[in-house]
Design a protein that fits this description.
The structure holds two protein chains of two kinds. By secondary structure, chain A is of the alpha+beta class. Helix content of chain A is 39%, strand content 19%. Classes of the chains: A alpha+beta, B mainly alpha.
Chain lengths: 762, 139
Amino acid sequence: MAKRKRPSQRIRRRRQRRRRLIFGLFTLLLAAGVGYLLYLDRLITNTFEGRRWSVPAVVYATPLELHPGASLSRNEVITELARLGYQQRRQASEPGTYSGLANTLSIHLRAFRFMERMRGSQRIEVVFDRGQIRRIEDAMGRPVPLIRLDPAVIGSFFPSHGEDRLVLAPDQIPVLLADGLKATEDQRFDSHAGFDVLGILRALWVNVTAGEVRQGGSTLTQQLVKSYFLDNRRTLARKLRELAMAVILELRFTKPDLLSAYVNEIYLGQDGSRAVHGFGLGSQFYFNRPLGELDAAKIATLIAIIRGPSYYNPFRHPHRARQRRDLVLDILHEHQLISDREHASARNSPLGVVEGTRRGGTYYPAFMDLVRDNLTELSVEELTSLGLRVFATLNPRSQDAVEAALAQALPRLESARGLDPGSLQAAVIITHTQTGEVEALAGARKSGDDGFNRALNARRPVGSLLKPVIYLTALEQGHHLVSSVQDEPVSIEMPNQPNWTPRNFDKSTHGPVPLIRALGESLNLATVKLGMHIGVDSVAERLRALTGNGPANRFPSLLLGAESLTPLEVAGLYGTFASGGFHMPVKAVVAVLNEQGATIAHHPFSMRQQIDPAMAETLNAALGVVMSKGTGKRSRFSNAGVAGKTGTSDGYRDSWFAGFDSARLGVVWLGNDNYTDTGLTGATGALTVWDNIMARLSVRPLPPPQADLIPVDYASGQLAHDRCAEVVKIPLPRGTPLQRKSGCGITLRSVPQRIRKWIHLE
Amino acid sequence: MYERSSAADQGADPQQDVPIGPAGEATKPADTHSATLALLKQSKRAHASGNHIEAIAYVERAIRLNPRQADLWLKLAELHLAQRDLEGAIQYANKTIALAGSRIDWVRQAWMVIADAKDQQGNAAAATEIRRKWRTYRG
């Protein structure tokens, strides 16, 4: 027995050991499995929670203000409404629509949270009269003194991985979308636990009988998981992992939570470097309208796209997209989500996608660079994830004018000058003269052409654009606009270098000339004479005070603009002149609001007086003479009360113009990135672009100077009247000694009392 | 030097801000009167309820509509003074003075803002000097 027992004991022991081993292995596996599940749980829960709140900041343009007396035509307002995706209807019965007969427009405004307050959705009636708004009334017929359209979205700060989205709250999701998603993608969504065996079998059956893949078996929850981890390998392990995560999500979150996550997460298309995620952004991207305003056909189109955003791309494959949309409409109809009539009319309607809105997610990339530069107080992380709302200064109408002007003017210049088509590069900045706010900005000849933003980053020699600083310094040192300066050859000794012998542009000399003419005609020799007289150092010092940066060049060649500035810096300098002597930072952001609508950053108007107002006024009058008599006289606005200065660098490498009217300052640079000769001066190049831009906006003459204007002969600076000379009217300090121009017959009595009081006749 | 006669001497030109349309002809200047009044009223309300940033935002909006109207800049100077942004208040007051033309009352009020700001900056001497000068102007 004992002997027999032994083997059985041995076997038992062996079995025991094996059992223990199996149990141990099992425990180990279980532990590993549980560990893995815990890991998956943490991963998916964190991802879900993280994504739910990760919303890129949206940037808005400046809104259009409507008020009685505004110089806005009915057509201009309609253009703006179209930009905002408002639909013309017979009745403006819902938000985002307008209607109108003859000289009125009835607009049903969308609700919008502005910086100061929430503006609810409301109907207004706008009456126009000869290119102006005559009156505005609310739905009750009460007069409205002022109201804004909603601002256009001009971009968003989506993170570097490219995912952009506009997150919708659960109550913003249309019922038809929610029900339609379930009907087409996941019929047992409300009851399953993350996966759906019946659904898989059904899909299999449908696909086998149809002979093609018509339905997927994935639940919405599984699709959500799949979209979180963008991985298209179809392995069993991955499928199982997805399944586990879907089950975990179902255990942890409610069905409504999962559905709204899906609506905000699902990938709907590619827009350049930006991936369009979620139905909120999808609706804007494909239809330029908020999701809440879409009809059944458009909702069905978006649902159709889910299955293959590139295969069913409605822009590139409208036929395919439409077929699939109609299939979705049939399903919606089958499930009684839409009526027979809705179904029939939706199937008959075109796709209705709006091509124009597809511009890489930042419709104005150059301007967006400046917005980013202005938001130093916010980190990339905050901008890409907190759902902030940035109110910016861009005026889409001015921006359109700039882009259209560049598109028209540059090819003309190239063909007229025999330059290679497409060779000229450009930068433009339009700012408001009194606030420093940037209305428009172009960093290349074509928006979004390349990544190089010349308006902000191209540092180029400014040439004669610098001359006004020299004349301002001279005026401040007691010279005046009729002070005489010799335009004659100069030779300046340079340390360890040959003498500097600059020349005039036309290579001639003009003898004694008044300052007003030396600046007007941009005479180099007279300017160098004047600059050497007042001192290069004091000019450099003045430039430093005006721009905040000391010039790199402290040699006499500074006087002829051998100093490089960016167009943005030039806008800062000329903005100081245009504002009447106040330096203002060139500004692109007004305020930043958080998701709750609270203001977290406000960038108020900011300015610092840098030039005495009377002195600034005198300089601006001289810059007005540049336009009416000098290098700017070829401008079509030369006599429209504008001021400006041309600039050309050595070898025609840079063509500049900076000019302003009462409301707008425009800085234009043209040149080649490789510093080759363009053959363009400031006047033949940049000025023509400026003209083209201003012709598309409206020019408002500068207010007349507050000082008395004295009529003098442009050539000699002598007192004259316009019957005997080419007269310019300029401010002069009290008691300025003046000669009478001979042949004008000016006697003491012929001079008006007011002027006699002002000047000292010699 | 460059003294400026007041706008009243030469008869301020009411047509000075006439925009010229693309066709080159002048259109009627924009009338911003009622819009500006509405914004100032809203600003006042916001200020009274302690919303200083909003109060400033309303005035800035009015300035965008009518950027050369000196009294709007004066309003902005006063709001920044109330917020103890003294340097800002002084600059907006300077802007008021630069734009005020013949409105000596606005010039005077702007100088009073500067005096108050100087006081709060601890520069009582400058404040006193400004007030002394403008007391004689009033007379």
